[in-house]
């Protein structure tokens, strides 16, 4: 488990490029037959992945960081498959998952095991977890059945479709809100206007980028922005005081996950782009 301690807005301004990447970028995801995890002090989130190739992979608690017998002993988990067909065994019940399907796993579950249907074309499971005070039922969400919102315009290069998996009008959770955004061809800007939401933090993982493409992810306070270069299947942490928006060299997709005291998707403080510095 990689443990990350981030900084406050004042300390953030003094970070070098390497320090900034070390604190906020997660670049070790989606390794074959591994379950890399990052524990962040931002709302005690855990971000990780599982790519089962030669074997099934269990999601287990780490004693030192979690002090728990089971990963979901005091946590809830949101999981999205961005690879080929796979399944997740949750306390003996198997949930088949196609590409972009999601699974919510509630507090109290003892066993979570990731499996790929084809070893040569594996599933790629991405997960985000937050502490939970109540047990909600494990629920599968098909990509085709998500609540969707279409936003943006071609002239602003930000035409995108937001797919909501875990949210107050869909799958219930304690604090986790999770979804996936897909940008159309020719659109490169996400999350416009840039915003903060003081009542929750957020994590992005970018994917569907070819090796020659990248995203310039902006973060920081509106008048003190910084950027991180993000490549395919890398994630960025965003504390509640930071804006989050990005622009790519081509279109892409990203999974967003939020944790905090308010689950209302529209609860945000937007900033006009002309205020950014």
In short:
This protein is mainly beta. It has helices spanning 9-12, 17-24, 63-66; strands at 2-4, 25-26, 37-40, 46-50, 57-58, 75-81, 86-90, 93-97, 102-105, 112-116, 125-131, 139-141, 147-151, 160-166, 177-183, 189-196, 200-207, 215-221, 224-230, 234-238, 243-248, 253-260, 269-270.
Verbal overview:
- This protein is mainly beta and 277 residues long.
- The protein has a single domain (2-275), classed as Jelly Rolls (Sandwich), CATH 2.60.120.10.
- The protein contains three helices and 23 strands.
- The strands form four sheets. A seven-stranded mixed beta sheet has the order 1-3-4-11-6-9-12, with helices on one face. It has a seven-stranded antiparallel beta sheet with strand order 2-20-17-22-15-14-13. Strands 19-18-21-16-23 form a five-stranded antiparallel beta sheet.
- A hairpin with a 2-residue loop joins strand 18 (215-221) and strand 19.
- The model has no long low-confidence stretch (mean pLDDT 94).
């Amino acid at each position: 488990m990689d443990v990350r301690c981030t900084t406050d807005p004042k300390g953030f301004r003094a970070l070098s490029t390497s320090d900034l990447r070390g604190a906020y970028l997660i670049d070790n995801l989606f390794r074959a037959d591994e379950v890399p995890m990052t524990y962040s002090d931002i709302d005690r989130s855990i971000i990780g992945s599982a790519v089962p190739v030669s074997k099934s992979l269990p999601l287990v608690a780490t004693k030192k960081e979690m002090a728990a017998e089971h990963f979901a002993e005091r946590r809830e988990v949101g999981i999205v498959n961005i690879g080929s067909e796979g399944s997740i065994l949750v306390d003996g019940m198997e949930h088949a998952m196609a590409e972009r399907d999601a699974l919510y796993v509630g507090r109290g579950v003892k066993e979570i095991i990731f499996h790929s249907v084809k070893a040569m074309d594996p599933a790629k499971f991405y997960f985000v977890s937050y502490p939970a005070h109540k047990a909600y039922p494990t629920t599968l969400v098909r990509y085709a059945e998500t609540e969707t919102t279409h936003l943006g315009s071609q002239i602003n290069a930000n035409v995108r479709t937001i797919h909501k998996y875990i949210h107050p009008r869909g799958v219930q959770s304690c604090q986790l809100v999770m979804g996936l955004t897909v940008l159309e061809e020719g659109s490169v800007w996400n999350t416009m206007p840039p915003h903060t939401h003081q009542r929750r933090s957020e994590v992005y993982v970018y994917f569907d980028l070819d090796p020659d493409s990248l995203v310039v992810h902006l973060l920081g306070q509106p008048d003190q922005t910084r950027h991180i270069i993000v490549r395919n299947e890398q994630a960025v942490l965003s504390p509640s005081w930071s804006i989050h928006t990005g622009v790519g060299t081509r279109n892409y997709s990203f999974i967003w996950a939020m944790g905090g005291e308010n689950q209302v998707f529209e609860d945000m403080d937007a900033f006009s782009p002309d205020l950014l510095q």
